[in-house]
Amino acid sequence: MIYNNILLVDDDEDDQEIFITAVQQINPQLKCSVESEAIIALQKLENKELVPDVIFLDLNMPVMNGQQFLVEVKKREELKHIPIIIFSTSRHEPTKLITKQLGALDFITKPDNFTTLVEVLKPVFC
Question: Among candidates 77, 107, 106, 88, which has minimal Cα distance to 19?
Answer without folding.
Answer: 88
